[in-house]
């Protein structure tokens, strides 16, 4: 398996922000993921969406990073929603009960329909 370094970019709209993620979410992703979250959070959007469609791998540290972002969003009275999870990671989000605390959509169009 080829290692894919993590990269994140942020798209900000009036009521929401999207964090587009690429590569592997693991311990090496922490700094860039936290930076992307801070950029997204800066405008105090109603919802922050995490786009997983280009994420190739998430380990337990990556799940912990997502939990940390969820806690931060809740403290800021924001919603954290996700889309683009493959079937395997969708099941992980259900097993870990992350799905109980955030909306999960299949793709960007579904997420933005609200």
Can you offer a commentary on this structure?
The protein has 114 residues and is of the alpha/beta class. It has a single domain, classed as 2-Layer Sandwich (Transcription Regulator spoIIAA). It has four helices and five strands; from the N terminus they run ββαβαβαβα. It has helices spanning 30-42, 60-75, 87-95, 108-113, and strands spanning 7-12, 16-25, 47-58, 79-83, 104-105. It has a five-stranded mixed beta sheet with strand order 1-2-3-4-5. Helix 1 runs parallel beside helix 2. It is globular, with a radius of gyration of 13 Å. The N and C termini lie far apart (37 Å).
Quick recap:
With 114 residues, this protein is an alpha/beta fold. The chain is built from four helices and five strands.
How far is the N terminus from the C terminus? Answer: 37 Å
Strand order of the largest sheet: 1-2-3-4-5
Percent of residues in helices: 25-40%
Count of the separate structural domains: 1
According to CATH, the fold-level topology is Transcription Regulator spoIIAA
| Assembly status | single chain
| Shape assignment | globular
Which residues form runs of ≥5 with pLDDT under 50?
A: none
Name of the CATH superfamily: STAS domain
Specify the biggest β-sheet: 5 strands, mixed
Number of strands: 5
CATH architecture classification name: 2-Layer Sandwich
Roughly what is the average pLDDT, rounded to an integer? 95
Query: Radius of gyration in whole Å, from Cα?
Result: 13 Å
Helices and strands, in N-to-C order?
Answer: EEHEHEHEH
Fraction in beta strands: 25-35%
For the record, the CATH class is Alpha Beta
Helices, by number, come to 4
Structural class: alpha/beta
